[in-house]
Amino acid sequence: MAFMELFRRWAALLLVPLALAMIMPSNFSLTRWWSPSWPGLPPVVVVPGYATNELDARLTELYRPSSPRCGARKGKGWFRLYLNHAALEDPAEVPCFAEQMSSVYDAASDDYYNAVGVETSVPFFGSTRAFRYPDPDRKNFSYMDKFVSRLERIGYRDNETLFGAPYDFRYAVAPPNHPSKVGSEFFGRLKTLIETAERR
Ligand SMILES: *[C@@H]1O[C@H](CO)[C@@H](O)[C@H](O)[C@H]1NC(C)=O
Ligand SMILES: *[C@@H]1O[C@H](CO)[C@@H](O)[C@H](O)[C@H]1NC(C)=O
Ligand SMILES: *[C@@H]1O[C@H](CO)[C@@H](O)[C@H](O)[C@H]1NC(C)=O
């Protein structure tokens, strides 16, 4: 319980959605946007805030769990690592969550990686589904639902005019003169998504 309280406070401080990217045609002008002659809504790509979207994981044979409990999902396919309130409310699961969420610095490549044997993926890239409810089992908890609902109320449709760019928030973007493989891959996918959104 205490952990969840702390988690929520931390979340409230840090996880407030930070960045939004509104993508306009290159010849965008405000008068055109507000004018009734605009052929449709300009597409919007939403980049959710830190730790706002789902993150899936899978444990491979290389994973060396700190306890048998943490290894229970080894070899059993993808599961939702983040966000899963039910798991985080179980004190025995918290160390497993911490261990599977952690990233490891490799001095040789000057970059960060998942813990050995933990594969992660960000589901529903392209859709706001990825972050509408970070824990789909607990829909009374969301940072983005109101915002997405308001966009839908003025006519936006998911994956038609409204897009989502969830990311693996554990990895920072590359600082000057340092690599970030995960961060750079994200920007590549974001660029493609923006280009696709503009063509729709
Ligand atoms: C400006 O953008 C609109 C909407 O994408 C397009 O229909 C129009 O042809 C563009 N005009 C110019 C001058 O590029
Ligand atoms: C979005 O729509 C495209 C084209 O219809 C489809 O291929 C893609 O799977 C959809 N993506 C999501 C996340 O629903
Ligand atoms: C949200 O739902 C869960 C169970 O589904 C419940 O335990 C929790 O108290 C609810 N939170 C709020 C703020 O209503």
UniProtKB/TrEMBL annotation:
The keyword Hydrolase does not apply. GO terms for molecular function: O-acyltransferase activity. It comes from the Eukaryota. One of its GO terms (biological process) is lipid metabolic process. Keywords: Signal. Residues 1-21 form the signal peptide. InterPro entries: AB_hydrolase_fold, LACT/PDAT_acylTrfase. PANTHER family: LECITHIN-CHOLESTEROL ACYLTRANSFERASE-RELATED. This is Exostosin GT47 domain-containing protein. It comes from Eragrostis curvula (weeping love grass). The lineage of its organism: Eukaryota, Viridiplantae, Streptophyta, Embryophyta, Tracheophyta.
